[in-house]
Queue: 2 jobs
Job 1
Amino acid sequence: MFRQDAILDLAFQALADPSRRAMVDRLIQGPATVSDLAKPLAMSLPGVMQHLAVLEASGLVVSEKVGRVRTCRIEPKVLSQAEHWIAERRALWERRLDRLGQFLDETKDD
Amino acid sequence: MFRQDAILDLAFQALADPSRRAMVDRLIQGPATVSDLAKPLAMSLPGVMQHLAVLEASGLVVSEKVGRVRTCRIEPKVLSQAEHWIAERRALWERRLDRLGQFLDETKDD
DNA sequence: ACAATACTAAAGCATCTACTTAAGTATTAT
DNA sequence: ATAATACTTAAGTAGATGCTTTAGTATTGT
């Protein structure tokens, strides 16, 4: 559907804001309404709605409205993709350090 | 020194741009000069410098100038912190799913 | 019916971001 | 000494971001 690159743009951008990370933190505990998410944040409800829109656009969160209540929950797939991008690079970095250490060991008797 | 929150703001913000992720990707292979980093990017050198400034401000990259050449390298600590933030939430999410599944199992004979 | 609740839409505004071009400053090569 | 290299600084700009306030619209409780 979307390029991995575009997914990561949106995911990391969404996670770059402390209010949005707080919302994710809350949703990790389980589903919550928009008002639930807004309660701990020092911000107007429309402000929270806009953060929610960013989280939904990134695919990190999905929501559904029943009656007058919108319930939000985490969609962990994108979270995994972001984690995986970083983990992969850390692994490459460490492999490179290993090779470097090995090389230094092998050549230390010159 | 800095609040974890502020570190994550800067780290995720830095990773939210594809040019900057490309620079990180390059630096994972090993140190590189500013020109090295600029080469694959369709962008002016000052543009690259600005991305580099964002990466350095986040602590993801450090650089040192020798003569007229600035050499950049990855500083993996912040990368780990970003990875850890996500991993922790994924773990919590999965533990919650487990508990939920267990609860459903235990009550399925009502 | 009427009020209260839970969002939602629209518009405004001060930054911030991601570039650009133009004009530097050191360093190194010839 | 001169020229080429490798950044660096400054200024400008279009568009995005993170709020706000005001004014809605459904839905639910009394």
Job 2
Amino acid sequence: MVRVIPSTAKHAHRDSHDLTERLRAAGLRPTRQRIALAGLLFDQGDRHLTAEDLHSEAARAGVKVSLATIYNTLHQFTESGMLKQVAVDAHRSYFDTNTGSHQHFYCEDDGALIDIPGEAIAVSGLPMPPKGMDVERVDVVVRIRKR
Amino acid sequence: MVRVIPSTAKHAHRDSHDLTERLRAAGLRPTRQRIALAGLLFDQGDRHLTAEDLHSEAARAGVKVSLATIYNTLHQFTESGMLKQVAVDAHRSYFDTNTGSHQHFYCEDDGALIDIPGEAIAVSGLPMPPKGMDVERVDVVVRIRKR
DNA sequence: CTCTTATTTAGAATGCTTCTAATCTGATTG
DNA sequence: CAATCAGATTAGAAGCATTCTAAATAAGAG
């Protein structure tokens, strides 16, 4: 009986190459840790996760990475525009792999975030920002809870 | 020469009485600490401040209050609707004495918050919340920075 | 005034994040 | 391909805001 090489092997190779290029483009050395974390972050659609989430996910995936590196990497990815940081609650800070313009439902019961597509929503009547200041971005958080 | 009783004395008395009633209405015993903190919080218009801000303000005003009480009080006031908590940044958590519907500019350079009146701004195109959930409130944060 | 219960408090504990200094690795050069 | 060196990673310490704990204090009822 022939053991079929899983197709993920091929993907892993292709992805790893893409990720390497992506890191280089961001001015970051494609190290083992950064490639692994980028794989976890970007290989499964839009995600919202905390530093701790990513750390345990890496552990589960058998990637040995220190918590310090998790933080460094999340911040570097955020600075280079690969991630967006979402401040939703004094207690929880999420990193969002969807860097496009979009907004969130925030469930106060369990802390879950749900994307709201950017096209769906519109904010009107914004006053001018104070003199000498530019608008960086507009965040909308719709706080919801179980009825 | 007659020493005139400062008019603030009269106000202090009136305010203190009002505050006492307000605390009672919220189901909170009007203790020395809560009355003093309520005075600092509500006697000077709309304010955005952190626990640490209030603590040092109390110290400056000669009111002896522990930090634990500051936190307890801020949370109790928030639960009873006298304050609103504003999550704007992973690092800074503000309490807002303006509990009406309004939004904020957030200056990423220095962490300052500036009110945007609720009437000015409108959010349209909000999708329905997931089944069984109610919208609690919609927060808009306009992030600005120096040009 | 006494009793009961809520409140306050100092200080310890927690949790998340950043810092430090040492070690290691990726990339470049000879 | 070995040496080099700046950049990256790491364990653990440190930092900071917040919460917890257990004991002391103060408010309100009777």
